Amino acid sequence: MPDSAASAPGDFIRGLIARDVASGKHGGRVVTRFPPEPNGYLHVGHAKSICLNFGVAQEFGGLCRLRFDDTNPTSEDVEYVESIQQDVRWLGFDWGEQCHFTSDYFQRLYEFAVALIRKGLAYVDDLSSEEITDHRGTLTEPGRDSPYRTRSVQENLDLFERMKAGEFENGERVLRAKIDMAAQNLVMRDPILYRVHKVPHHRTGDKWCIYPMYDFAHCLSDAIESVTHSLCTLEFVDHRAIYDWLIEHLEVPSHPKQTEFARLNLTYTVMSKRVLLKLVTGGHVSGWDDPRMPTISGMRRRGYPPAAIRRFCREIGVAKRDNTIQLERLEHAIREDLNANAPRVMAVLDPLRVVIENYPDGQVEMLEAVNNPEDPQMGTRSVPFSRVLYIEREDFLEDPPRKFFRLAPGREVRLRYAYFITCTDVVKDASGRIVELRCRYDPATRGGDAPDGRKVRGTLHWVSAEQALAAEVRLYDKLFRVEDPLDAPPGGDFTANLSPDSLTRVRDARLEPSLADAAPGDCFQFERLGYFCVDPDSRPGALVLNRTVTLRDSWAKIAKQAAGAASSRRDRTRDAAE
Ligand code: ATP
Ligand code: MG
Question: Does residue 95 form part of some domain?
Answer without folding.
Answer: yes
